[in-house]
Specification:
Layout (H helix, E strand, L loop, with lengths): L1 H4 L6 H10 L1 H10 L2 H7 L6 H12 L3 H19 L5 H10 L3 H20 L7 E3 L14 E5 L11 E6 L2 E7 L2 H14 L9 H11 L10 H10 L2
Parallel strand pairs: 1-2
Antiparallel strand pairs: 2-3, 3-4
Helix pairs in contact: 5-9, 6-8, 6-9, 7-8, 10-11
């Protein structure tokens, strides 16, 4: 698998087949080894397609598509109710866009970046703008999106996105913020990471409401209130 992963065009179907055969071994290895050791043993976790497949194989949910279809519907309302100081900056950029399809994508990206303010959680546990890093607790291996090449520090004017975990680069294959969010959720699953306190409400919301992996009827009161405010 290591040799296949290193190829310019790795055989994804072959990697899926091999990874499916060692599910138990993978789970045991991940739970007893560091992020660096896990990536050395399973370098295919650096491939976006393999991360997305791993969660889909376990849940039958297409994470990337589910975020696009579900969160896009909520995005305008998130922009409306958010009290983040970033909201006006995002609004101006979206209003200046004349392409309807591109505008919808910008609304989704803005909504994702506004989730921490909406849930009153730590944005530094979800993403950081390169050069404007927010320090996370050192003992928490938190996957996050690193937005690189942001013009004038504007989070939505990035050149590319890097997904990191525990100081390690996982993948640079995210096409946009919504895909990066999907991959981030896949990393939580693949590496067996517990939800950090400062991001727990957002993750519960995403897994229950957006991905529909858990029963939304049992949402914590604080999460349910936010959900009701953007799904009226």
């Amino acid at each position: 698998m290591k040799e296949e992963t290193e190829k310019l065009r790795p055989n994804i179907e072959l990697l899926k087949e091999k990874m499916a055969l060692i599910k138990c071994y993978r789970r045991n290895f991940v739970s007893n080894h560091s992020t660096e050791e896990t990536l050395s043993e399973f370098p295919c976790f650096r491939l976006a397609k393999m991360l997305l497949w791993d969660l889909r194989d376990h849940t039958s949910v297409d994470v990337d598509q589910q975020i696009l279809t579900q969160l896009s519907v909520m995005a305008p309302r998130v922009l409306q109710v958010s009290r983040s100081p970033l909201k006006d900056k995002f609004r101006r950029m979206i209003e200046d866009c004349e392409d309807g399809r591109l505008k919808k994508g910008q609304q989704l990206e803005a909504a994702i970046l506004l989730l921490p303010a909406l849930f009153k959680e730590d944005p530094g546990l979800l993403y950081e703008v390169e050069g404007h890093a927010q320090t996370s607790p050192p003992d928490i291996p938190t996957p996050k999106m690193v937005l690189k090449g942001c013009r004038e520090g504007h989070p939505m004017q990035y050149d590319h996105i890097v997904l990191t975990l525990d100081g390690q680069v996982i993948t640079e294959e995210s096409e946009d913020i919504s895909m990066a969010l999907g991959l981030l959720l896949c990393v939580y699953f693949a590496f067996g990471i517990q939800y950090p306190t400062g991001l727990k409400k957002i993750l519960i919301f995403l897994y229950c409401v957006v991905l529909k992996l858990k029963d939304a009827a049992g949402l914590p009161v604080t999460v349910k209130r936010v959900y009701n405010s953007i799904c009226e």
